[in-house]
């Protein structure tokens, strides 16, 4: 998968690409990241990328032409057709189902806004989808792009080692529940003792306990997810036990 990032600060790409799962996915050839700076496509001595908003008011708005030329250059860098995603607080909320859909795309171009945002005409002409990472306002789209890249990279086949398998993770586990709690050594600690069932070696009992914990946590913390989960009769019994 290829991800191009259109940003006034494309060096941020090197930061996220150098670490952990995203770094490994790159090394393994599972994702390729490239940054593109609209300033490189701006005209004039000052290479201006923004201007004042029509109608007055505070802040600046990103100009159409440098962004358009930058997106065109990113598109032309690879023959596969690319979905253009504008990171925006006004976009659809990002969730794991959306991440899974994005992870199946051959190419993404992530457009990061700054200032008051991007001229609306550029969005109408070039953007396929607007995505928000939450109901708060960031000063730029780069952190939101990093969130998308990380979430999408770890779903590429071969990006995670077995120990980090995504199948048990919150939202990806059976029914889209939250994950169960996890423990490691030591068994006894001043902060508590590991639940006995996890040391029993009885895989069926362990699976049952984990499912019950996942159901209980989801019920307590995110009851909205249970409505979508399509619980089995056995799940309902575990939840009520
Ligand atoms: N005036 C815009 C509004 O109120 O909708 C906010 C602009 S914000 C200061 C600058 C840029 O940060 C946006 O163009 C967008 O790319 C990014 N951004 C801010 N909050 C975001 C969020 N919650 N999710 C994704 N991107 C966000």
Characterise the protein shown here.
Belongs to the RNA methyltransferase TrmD family. It is found in: Cytoplasm. Keywords: Cytoplasm, Methyltransferase, S-adenosyl-L-methionine, Transferase, tRNA processing. 37% of the residues lie in helices and 16% in strands. With 241 residues, it is an alpha/beta fold. It folds into two domains: 2-153, Alpha/beta knot (3-Layer(aba) Sandwich); 167-240, tRNA(m1g37)methyltransferase, domain 2 (Trp Operon Repressor, Chain A), CATH 1.10.1270.20. The chain has a five-stranded parallel sheet, with helices on both faces. It has a two-stranded antiparallel sheet with strand order 3-4. Strands 8-9 form a two-stranded antiparallel sheet. Strand 8 and strand 9 (192-193) form a beta hairpin. The radius of gyration is 22 Å and the shape is elongated. Bound molecules: S-adenosylmethionine. S-adenosylmethionine binds at residues 87-90, 112-114, 116-118, 132-134, 136-141, 144.
Q: How do the helices and strands follow one another from N- to C-terminus? A: EHHEEEHEHEHEHEEHHH
Tally of individual helices:
9
Q: What top-tier CATH class of the largest domain fits best?
A: Alpha Beta
Pick out the low-confidence regions.
Answer: none
Radius of gyration: 22 Å
Sheet with the most strands, sense and barrel status: 5 strands, parallel
| Average pLDDT, all residues | 95
Strand order, largest beta sheet: 2-1-6-5-7
Please estimate the helix content: 25-40%
Q: Would you identify the CATH architecture of the largest domain?
A: 3-Layer(aba) Sandwich
- Helix/strand-derived category reads alpha/beta
The CATH topology of the largest domain corresponds to Alpha/beta knot
End-to-end distance? 45 Å
Bound molecules: S-adenosylmethionine
Q: Number of folding domains?
A: 2
Number of strands: 9
Q: What general form does the structure show?
A: elongated
GO cellular component, one term: cytosol
Catalytic activity: guanosine(37) in tRNA + S-adenosyl-L-methionine = N(1)-methylguanosine(37) in tRNA + S-adenosyl-L-homocysteine + H(+)
InterPro entries: Alpha/beta_knot_MTases, tRNA_m1G_MeTrfase_C_sf, tRNA_m1G_MeTrfase_TrmD, tRNA_m1G_MTases_N, tRNA_MeTrfase_TRMD/TRM10
Subunit structure: Homodimer.
